[in-house]
Amino acid sequence: MKKLEDVRVAIDQVDEELVRLFEKRMKLAEDVVEIKTAENLPIFDGARENKVVERAVDRLGNPGNAGAIRSFYHLLMTMSKARQREIMYNQNEDWLTRLIENAEPLKQGPVSVIYQGVSGAYSYEAALQTFGDRAKLENVETFENVFQKIQKGEADYGVLPIENSIMGGVAEVQDHLRSYGCFIVGETEVSVHHCLAAVPGTRLEDVREVRSHPQALGQCREYLQARHMQGITWINTAVAGESVAGEDRKDLAALCSSTAANLHGLEILEENVEDKKNNRTRFIIVAAQMAFQEDFNKTSILFSTEHRSGALLEALSAFAVEDLNLLRIESRPTGHKGWDYWFFVDFAGNVKHPAVQKAMRQLAAEASYFEVLGCYKAAGK
Ligand SMILES: O=C(O)C(=O)C[C@]1(C(=O)O)C=C[C@@H](O)C=C1
User: Where is this site: Essential for prephenate dehydratase activity (predicted)?
Assistant: First the structure.
């Protein structure tokens, strides 16, 4: 058998080569963005990305590496796009004008929409609420799958929960939003009302076991306790409803949305059983390209600052000076070094508005990293 040290020496040699090639590729990305800036082309090119990935797969000697090489290339191109954005937005004097020029209006007519979960889930409701019957809906298992499909150009829009009025921000979605370089192009709010649903003919007083997602069970804890019902953890609310429909039991129910109950032919025994009313979840609509319309009234940005006292205050002061209303600020660890953060900020205003442009230009000049995550129509406005 080979000695570990010897193999590691060989790995080090390969890595040396990889680093050299990586830097060569990143340098080419810098050349690309120069051309794209001059010719006013968007950074993202889904068709080209698919070609790059599939060519790499074709070149493999071992087809077992296909999944790994796909992930590797998507990551490589994410980094390539991040570098290109950095250059296009931060160094080009006219980055803001270009950003708006490259943005597209929202698509009208039929669109393909991807969401996480199953039919009847709250994300599904958010998708229907936003796109109605013009959407061809597709569901995937994880939040990350949504970003992957959008990034590969396999769907027009993705629908993802970003924050709940009781539970707060959805950290995973926030993190992927940054790393996948997708844009927020819309948002919608869904009232989260749980109902107790069971197979038709079930009597409320006979229900002993209730299946649902832990969040929903938690949001209805007092209701369940008062009725001596035992909560059973299920993967999500809609699948809980589906599972109850598949069993002919009169002591079993699910906590799910009324949409999920109706979808699975369940009878709603009681509606709005959540302990706290006004339970709402805000969903964002993401796309591979930035969107722009004159009627958009909310902007989301991402930035990081130097690690020194007053840096955040200074960074945000431009918004106070320009009288812009900050709607939300969320921080997430950068993961690069300890206690370093990305700041996600939402504020009221359209990216074309002079005050917004002034504040963003100032912040971009001061921040150690700055990116526009999107401009869109605020929910309910
Ligand atoms: O070829 C381009 O247009 C690039 O910008 C380069 C690149 C890449 O890194 O390969 C990056 C982004 C595009 O979406 C496609 C490909």
Answer: 281
For domain 195-270, is the CATH number 3.40.190.10?
Answer: yes
Q: What are phi and psi of 30, to 5 degrees?
A: -65, -35
Is residue 32 within 6 Å of ligand 1 at its C-beta?
Answer: yes
| Cα of 98 from ligand 1 centre, angstroms | 18
Ligand 1 centre from 159 Cα, in Å?
Answer: 25
CB of 49 shorter than 6 A to ligand 1: yes
**According to the CATH classification, is domain 4-91 in 3.40.640.10?**
no
Give the residue numbers annotated as catalytic, written as ranges: 281, 283
Task: State whether ipTM is beyond 0.90.
Answer: yes
Task: Write down the pLDDT at residue 307.
Answer: 75
Q: Which of 43-57, 144-158, 165-179, 331-345 has the highest mean pLDDT?
A: 144-158
Q: Tell me the two tokens of residue 251.
A: 């002591």
Rounded to two decimals, the pTM is 0.72
Over residues 248-301, the pLDDT tens digits come to 999 999 999 998 999 999 999 999 999 988 889 999 999 999 999 999 999 999
| Domain ranges, ordered by start, for the chain | 4-91, 102-191+280-376, 195-270
CB atoms within 10 A of CB 288: 27
Q: Which ligand 1 atom is the nearest neighbour of the CA of 79? A: 9
Mutate to test the pocket of ligand 1, among 28, 48, 75 (most ligand atoms within 8 A of CB): 48
Residue with tokens 């390969």: 14
Query: Which CATH number is associated with domain 102-191+280-376?
Result: 3.30.70.260
Q: Outline where 152-299 has alpha helix (H).
A: 171-179, 214-219, 221-226, 237-245, 258-263
pLDDT per residue over 22-58, tens digit each?
999 999 999 999 998 888 777 878 889 889 999 999 9
Report which ligand 1 atom has the smallest distance to the Cα of 84.
Answer: 5
Strand partners for 282: 163, 189
Asked if the domains 4-91 and 102-191+280-376 are classified in one and the same CATH topology, the answer is: no
Nearest-CA residue for ligand 1 atom 10 is: 77
Q: What is the DSSP letter of 291?
A: B
pLDDT tens, residue by residue, 170-181 = 889 998 998 888
